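Write out structure tokens for ER lumen protein-retaining receptor.
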Amino acid sequence: MNIFRFAGDMTHLCSIVVLLLKIEATKSCAGVSLRTQELYAVVFVSRYLDLFFTFISVYNTVMKVFFITSSFCIIWYMRHHRIVSQTYDREQDTFRVAFLVVPCIFLALLVNHEFSMVEVLWTFSIYLESVAILPQLILLQRTFNVDTLTSNYVFLLGAYRALYILNWLYRYFTEPGYSQWIVWSSGTLQTAIYCDFFYYYVVSWRKNERLSLPS
């Protein structure tokens, strides 16, 4: 554990807390992509199967359980909550997730560190996480004017990934033999996807305006 990884974990946790608070406080999920939330649920379940047979630390276990349960909690709100589900914009959130899931499955089967079920699923989760935000970003483009809490949620998600890049660099220079090129390449792609959003987020923040993404 180093300061960059801890900061990344806390930023990731904060992003989910911000989204849950938005949904609970406003009783609305407007501007939130259910498809992205479902992809994240798949990512966490696929990645954290080791909860059943490996114990690393209390911190590690608590974080994994939180990410899994919070993902399904958000999905439940958006699908089944009597009020919140009515605010979900189904007509705009139409990204075909099969275009992301299927290539990630094939890539995980072809390019992995070890051809075993747990390792392939872990690799699949890494690939899928790198593109899972795309339905959310496309939805924000379609809705034009984005509320502050939703934009903060997406910004924190991007910041979490950027901090993890610093974590990898730190470990590369301080831990002899440390190498995770699958994680590095996928994380770099994920951060690059956020760059356009970061630009417009900073512009809107400096102008004290609500975020608006170009179509």
